Amino acid sequence: MTSLPADTQIAAESSFRPARRRRLTRARLGRYAIPYLLILPVLAAIGAVLGYPVGYLINLSFQRYGLPELIQHTGEYIGLHNYYLVLHDSVFWNTLERTIVFTAANVGLTMGLGTLLALLLVRVSTWVRIPLTAGLVLVWSMPVVVAVQVWYWMTNFENGVLNAIFHLGQHDWYASTFSQLGVVTALIVWGALPFVVITLYAGLAQVPHELVEAAEIDGARPWRVLKDVTFPILKPIFLVLTSLSIIWDFGVFTQPYLLIGREHQYASNYLMGVYVYIKAYSDNDYGQGAAISILMLLIVAILSVFYVRKMVRIGDT
Amino acid sequence: MKRRKFVAVGFVALAALVFAIAAGGVSGATKAKSITVWLQTDAQATNWQPIVAAANAQFQKDTGATANVQYQTWGTHLQKFDATLAGGNTPDVIEMGNTEMTKYMAAGAFQDLTADKASFPNSSTWLAGLAASGRYNGKVYGVPYYAGSRVITYRTDLFKKYGLKIPKSVAQFAAEGAKLISTNSKKGYSGLYVAGTDWYFAMSFVFDYGGNIATRVSGKWKGTLDTPKSIAGLTAYKNFFNAVSRASKTTDEAHPQPYDQYAANLAASVEGPAWFTCCVKKYTPVTAQFVMPSHVQGQVMPGFLGGSDLAIPVGADKSLGEAWIKAYTSTASQKALEAIGNIPNTTSLFNPKKVNERAALRSWFVPTAKNWVNVENQNILRNMLAEILTGKLTVKQAATAASDDVASILNASV
Questions:
Q1: A-contacting residues in B 32-71 (Cβ below 8 Å)
Q2: What's the pTM value of the predicted model, to 2 decimals?
Q3: Is the ipTM beyond the 0.85 threshold?
Q4: Does B83 touch chain A (CB under 8 A)?
Q5: B314 and B297 in one domain?
């Protein structure tokens, strides 16, 4: 290299540089483009099955769209009037408050009991674990509508098995809103437990045994081990399970609608899922129904973000 | 090379997906001359089916077309109908409950049959209450199909055994019901089984005392459940329920079916449609019916006149639809419907020997407001009754709240 004249060296470098840069650019472009190309079919499919209806829903929420409009196939644009009506309706706010309390109770019970059962599964012998897991899987595999029928029969006024076992005579499990939603909560938590327990159990199997042992040798009590060793490791799983539970329980429809029954859905016991259904499909006010759906979407997003941030902060400290 | 392969596979998958979606939308059905008819599952009963079959045969003879009868349930048929209205594939004939008609007539869901009214069988003697439910703004949209009244179905052997007579007043019936309860130690045994939130029965008390659900005052609906007369009726209902029924105070009249309670010997009598005699099993030989008495000695209580109309939705084949309705509401067809316990759509077939037809002579009907069915769907009256019977609210509090709700729903713009 040193034997070559200086200008040749420069010329050589300058003739190389553009070529090298071109090669690099092409490679870089390819590296960036390929993942996007790979994800394109998925995005297109999601856009078709999710984006289109959501866009349609948003569009619908700006229109007066009732039964006459449904028949004419054309709505009248009224701006934000549907949102105005919904936000000035006390039923909406009462339902929202009820649903948030209901969701908190359901998610809390699901996660709390789920964690306890998962911890139990780790401790018990195989002979206990297998039937317990089998039982959970059976619960999981039962279709919701069938489960509702079973619970309906158990809480039946005339000859329900719960009244028979506890000698309650003819106790009416659906006499008050609190009792109605209490039975619905029991049904939902019961149905949600298997997923939570089995997922957490799988997660617990990932906690390194040495870490737990080391903590125990250092004198940590079981609660301390759970709080400072197990929980931080399982945090991502808790995060996902809780977020999913919030989303499911906030918008729940099948269980309250079927268990309480079509004839017993009142403004005083609506949950958001039922409320939006009655508004849109019983009252045929599709515009307001769409507006409520959009608001529900935003509320769930806010609740989830709030929760996720809180969880991340717990992890940071 | 590998990357390209991946990309290619991705695109092929996408193309396949798009193609699959597109292919799903193509239908190769050729259109034969046939119409679709939606009837309620009631018509699937074994004694009802021959009447439908006869009408289909007559229709085919008259027009050469075939009728495809599809059966719907009361709980879901409106939502299904809405979906067909949105999609433009409505049935050609639909059975509608008489309380459901107004909302759909007002929205323009049905074709105007006014000009052809005279061509329908017995149209000059149609049952007035039922014909009214198929009219809106002076136009005819619904053809009366059949009506049903509500009566008391009771055990003749038990009434005889305890020396009870067919009651002539509410007070007498309340005493008899209480006595029947005392004769049977079974828990939950009712003298008269009444589901707590059976608003059809409860409103009969309201009308019996001269009350009403809502009235139209200078173009606006006003709830009238909180008037003194209505409150007297609701109070009488509460007292009567507590005296005779041990049913759940919050349940409705289909959970459980009252005739199942009766057949299981959990009730000496039940209140409901006259066809309840169908399903009382081993008690059939000792079962009879009477008309619910009024609180006024010797009179009968006004009962809810249920019923169905047949209508032709927009976009349907009107002439074939009309031809099918004519075949199905012919005098022969109506006679057959009467024979299996329904009230025919024409007064010309009135038979005073039949208890259900006698009960229909004094009847009440819901407010003919386009939003009435929303009051039903939001269960305003059921909620009120549950609150009254469980004691959560006083009669006056519950009636006032319900009255306000009824007014705001009936006056809503959508």
A1: none
A2: 0.82
A3: no
A4: no
A5: no
